[in-house]
Amino acid sequence: MDHSVAHKEQYPFADLSLAQRLERAEAGANIDFVQGRAKAFPLRGATWCEIAGTYAMFDGRTSPITQTFALGMFQPLTERELQAIEKFFLDRHAPVCHEMCPLADASVLPLLNDRGYQPIEFTSVLYRPIQAQSGLSISTNNNIVVRLSEPNEREAWAETAFRGWSDFGELADFLLELGKVNARRENALCFVAELNGQSIGTGLMSIVDGVALLAGASTIPEARKRGAQLALLESRLRYAADHGCDIAMMGALPGSASQRNAERHHFRIAYTRVKWQLMNTSLASFS
Asked: 51 φ, ψ to 5°?
């Protein structure tokens, strides 16, 4: 895509309506993941529930997916409802974490302050409109081929992703099981980048109500800086546009290389989420 096409794309305002769409899409993708976990590892007790428009996920005590999504995005939140959400996690001996959009209802922040939550993480949520002509404004490496992995290749996809994420040792157990979980998911789109027939990179995508959530970006160390991630981004955007999506989204650490790369390819920051964790569980009474 050239710059003239990029300028013609109409960006929706980063308002509550857009935020609700993005937050619901991410919640839907993670529901799909938790359900895949429950099928692949039924003894783990993976489950989810919806309380007051908030989606609470349990994927194991140490999983990054064990948290809430869309807290306070669709209705005001009461203390009793927040207590019920907390109970969902504490009954499973899991930390209580909420990733909160700044456009959430004004009732949420005072409750978190009163109940002893502290901020522990920030995430930039980025978005861009997509259409049939969507693509990148620069050429990708023509020697790299991107395709959807077959269901019977999910383990191999996970092995490539794991090699690319070797820097994140604290997530080793989670990443090692990723292939088995994705193989049991209903809506996981696992893309692989190949160079000379060898898998060198991965990209994941979920489609929820016209929103394409991009994740799973990984390139093995020895093949970095050859254009694998550009090719994966190009292919996922085109696939999403061809399958009825009008918005793509992704998350990145604020100020990171991932955020810069996204912005180079016409993603804009919609908002920055803050992850809050309950530090004093003695405050979580359920009377």
From this structure: -130, 120
Cα 246 → chain centroid: 17
pLDDT of residue 243: 93
Q: How far apart are CA 257 and CA 251, in angstroms?
A: 12
pLDDT of 158 over the 90 cut: no
Give the residue carrying structure tokens 């803050």: 274
Q: Which CATH architecture has domain 128-271?
A: 3-Layer(aba) Sandwich (3.40)
pLDDT, averaged across the chain:
89
Q: Would you give the distance in Å from CA 11 to the centre of its chain?
A: 21
Angle at 154 between CA 99 and CA 133, to 5 degrees: 70
The model's pTM? 0.89
CATH 3.40.630.30 in the chain: give the residue spans: 128-271
Q: Is the dihedral of CA 13, 19, 20, 24 positive or negative?
A: positive
